[in-house]
Design goal:
Blueprint: H1 3-9, H2 14-21, E1 24-28, E2 33-35, E3 43-49, E4 51-57, E5 63-70, E6 74-75, E7 88-91, E8 95-101, H3 102-111, H4 113-139, H5 142-152, E9 155-157, E10 163-165, H6 171-178, H7 182-194, E11 198-201, E12 204-207
Antiparallel strand pairs: 1-8, 2-7, 3-6, 3-8, 4-5, 4-7, 9-10, 11-12
Amino acid sequence: MAQSDRSREKLADPFVRELAARGQTRRYPKGALVIREGEAGDALYVILSGKVKVYVSDTQGREMILAAYEAGDYVGEMALDGKRRSASVVALEPTACAVVERDALRTAIHADPDVAMRLIGTLIGRTRTATLNLKDLALMDVYGRVARLLLELEMVPEADGRAWSRERLTQQEIANRVGASRDMISRILKDLRTGGYIAVREKRIAILRRPPARW
């Protein structure tokens, strides 16, 4: 069995496996652009292995990270409308994707309307998340956005008795996610460490006690 076939078989969700089976496998080295903001969209990408981030940027090169996805997720589902991409996707590590062209998606939907319902469900969920993030940017101060991000990180218990974030995040990556400057994030994290709320080790974060609602 080919490596790409094995990667598809490892996908836990039968729906995602079916999507992946309709695409051709492409591999991307770390740092490679999978999708470029502003380009015409004509395919959905099922992540077979690796990890990607979705982000938007401006002409000055400033970025804001919208989400990160890994094996079993898919990106580019808005390709069905054939319009230009609204965000970029870059590989955070060596990544393999099953690239499902728009015509193959349409064929799948015609064969099984539940495919459309699953895609719509994903769009609704991601739209809700985007709405909450926009609300935070408009109504919550930078500290509040940082505290929310920290509390939403996936944590992994380790031998030292603490649960550490699965992701390794630089201060700049945190800044990109919450729409703030790196200097501001540096000050907030320093204050949280000094206050005994978090620990930081090799770009991973442990929550020692719940950060206060306001700082």
